[in-house]
Amino acid sequence: MSTITAFALWWLTVNYVAADLTTVTTLFPGTRCQLCPDFGHHILRHLKPAPPKLFRGRPFRIPTDSPNPPALPGPCLSLECMNAPSTPTSTPPTTAPLVSTEYSESIPGLVHVRLNRPNKLNSLTIDLLQQLIDTAHTLRRDRSVRAVILSGTDGNFSSGLDFADTLKSPPRMLSHFIPRPLRGTNTFQEAPWAWRRLPFPVIAAVEGYCFGGGVQIALGADFRFTSNDAHWSVLEAKWGLVPDMSGIMSLKQLLPIDEVKRLAMTGEIFSGERAAELGLARAAEDPLAAAEELARQIIERSPDSVALAKKLVDETWELGPRRTFAKERLRQARLLVSKNAAIARKAAQKKVPPKFRPRTVR
């Protein structure tokens, strides 16, 4: 790798944090870097001599003779490292996933996705958010999935962002703050919004604490059920912040503008009963049971009509009549000639439960 190329990569990565680890994985599939704690460090290691790292106008050099520097949690940007064989490492201890996935045995096609940090009230870390995104993308590829229920373990949905964990590494946090060019969302926004993009319904079952980022993940679902004694809050105001995990987009679809402003400005903590009165969710004595019942009803319908109904509503929500009518015709034309629509018609005529084929809509 030439010095000019290496310097260009170093400059873009270190000074502009041009891509987060997920984007790097997509664009630069390579081996795991075992040499350094961050991209800039490793890129500098390949420069001979290493140029000064310029950050906020203060030049300094990163040492290249560290005996045991920590490994980068992802592939390195260096072309030399990408082409090098991976270094054997010891097997890390097995830990429970931060996001668990369970396929229902009683309701075929239903998947339970749970936030799994019970000792921290399911608070959100960058790793948890990334696992949430990965889970959504994995389920999208599974055409047998008909519905998803989002919930939290140990009686709490989520207490919001874990600031202590997230701020341990400001450069890492900033790298995940940069939006992905194709999706238009960063990691914090994609974790809730990825569920809106799925071609099947997502239902949030809220109990216990649902604060900050937890509210925004719940709002990323198509439907929400909450217990009356749950605690809700757009808590970012407490920390001098705004709801930026796609929360404003979701809130303005559900509430009047003055109510959105009030919740975002005050950080008021309110009950699940009050959340239902506002229209953020539906009250249920047992949110999980209510979510399962709704999922059961939806699964009885054609997976293609369900997928296109969700897509049609979402894509036309802010469009005018003319464009909405055009979208209706387009989606309906596809369904009229679909095999699952034919199966639904025949089953209705014979008054028997339909047996649908796997979903064709992506």
TrEMBL record:
GO terms for molecular function: 3-hydroxyacyl-CoA dehydratase activity; isomerase activity. CDD domains: crotonase-like. Keywords: Fatty acid metabolism, Lipid metabolism, Lyase. It is an enzyme of class 4 (lyase). It catalyses: a (3S)-3-hydroxyacyl-CoA = a (2E)-enoyl-CoA + H2O; a 4-saturated-(3S)-3-hydroxyacyl-CoA = a (3E)-enoyl-CoA + H2O. Gene3D superfamilies: 2-enoyl-CoA Hydratase, Chain A, domain 1. InterPro entries: ClpP/crotonase-like_dom_sf, Ech1-like, Enoyl-CoA_hyd/isom_CS, Enoyl-CoA_hydra/iso. GO terms for biological process: fatty acid metabolic process. Could possibly oxidize fatty acids using specific components. Belongs to the enoyl-CoA hydratase/isomerase family. This is Enoyl-CoA hydratase. The lineage of its organism: Bacteria, Bacillati, Actinomycetota, Actinomycetes, Mycobacteriales.
